[in-house]
User: What shape does this take?
Amino acid sequence: MTILSSKDNSNIKNAVRLRKSAKHRRESGLFIAEGVRICIDAMLSKADIDTFFASEKAAAKYAYEFEQLRKYSAKAFVVSDKIFNQICDTESPQGFLCVIKALDKSGSFDKIKTGDKFLALDNLQDPSNLGTILRTAEALNVTGVVLSDDCCDIYSPKVVRGSMGAVFRLPFVVSTSIAEYLNTHSELESYAAVVSSSADKITETSFASPCIVAVGNEGNGLKEDTISACKHKITIPMTGRAESLNAAVAASIIMWEMMK
Amino acid sequence: MTILSSKDNSNIKNAVRLRKSAKHRRESGLFIAEGVRICIDAMLSKADIDTFFASEKAAAKYAYEFEQLRKYSAKAFVVSDKIFNQICDTESPQGFLCVIKALDKSGSFDKIKTGDKFLALDNLQDPSNLGTILRTAEALNVTGVVLSDDCCDIYSPKVVRGSMGAVFRLPFVVSTSIAEYLNTHSELESYAAVVSSSADKITETSFASPCIVAVGNEGNGLKEDTISACKHKITIPMTGRAESLNAAVAASIIMWEMMK
Assistant: This one.
């Protein structure tokens, strides 16, 4: 196999652009995953891997995984260690990087079934929070996630990593707004998560099914029109300091109560 | 007020060392907090502020907060914007930084009372996770946190920031090992959080009081001797992918079930 050792190679250039630019990811319908475990995870999740890059060192160190991914991917390249480190997002890259085709996973949303329980995210901004939330949603068996189109990019490298591969498997759909989504899906019982002593406590809420719970932005919570579009308001009762849960923790506790 | 504009000033040198070195924090009994909100929070929490630094810009922009902190702190300095940016940990510093005396907050652990519910952290390594866990513990009114001495430093700038100031208020104690702590506190009903289908489900556990729940390392979970020292094993039942919760989320769901 030829070893790529120039940053000017068009495949490498494309990977670097995909890492840096949400716009390029959107326009090309491609995104990247970095790390041995997550690349293997992409393959096992039957993600459509367009290009697989491995550093010289990693191709030798993870020879078995390298061989599997080389066969599975449409294109595969070995890259000099120096160039590989320059194209990666992480501080200590493990030497595997895949360019993956974004799939339309909105199928699960076409026909809503009894038993379905969705999460809606309204203007969530932090990629670490989004990654953690997707990971939790998958672990707790949430049916799918609806994101408002002003959320951070679900295909950013940080989200892909933080989600531990949930992004390859969990059904999700991006909607212009959560309010619009709710208005066109009135068969869902909808719950707005707010910080308010007058809202229903999640400990006393029996989540109907099919249903959807909306969680908002880290600093500002849900948009007003999202709250209005929901049939119920719910809140996490706190005996200590109120308004003091991290967004990913709040979403996780709500999903926990919804799913258990 | 004189404006410090040299990195060689001994106060500035000390702050930089405190930011970088856990050893220096431990030996001096001092740590730092960065940001307007968190410095104000330290003051409102009656933390013992040894030195307060503000950048020229921030002293003007947050004149009211600057004045309060200047009066409250033992020493206060205005620092040129250029030098301030060099001493800060965050990418876009807000221009406030405090050097704070670490307090002995182990008092709450001397006499354990009915109603007390503690969290034990065994070799937790990620400062973001620790910050988030402390924040959640405070919000949910956990009595206090016991940390094994191989956890990451609770006074690292990332933990202080991520905890949203909980580190100023939440009682905690560092113990040589969680097993040792449990063995010398047999009055506590103790629960080891594990990933195991044979452990008691947290949904079916009625947490006794006083009690303590032990949560382990991000990759490896609890140490064997910690599990052995606990009276019960508990687990988070997951219908989706098991072993796939982020450590801070797992700890938060467990605290939620323990406290609600």
Remarks:
- The longest strand of chain A covers residues 48-55.
- Residues 127-139 of chain A form the longest helix (13 residues).
- Chain A has two domains: 3-101, 106-259.
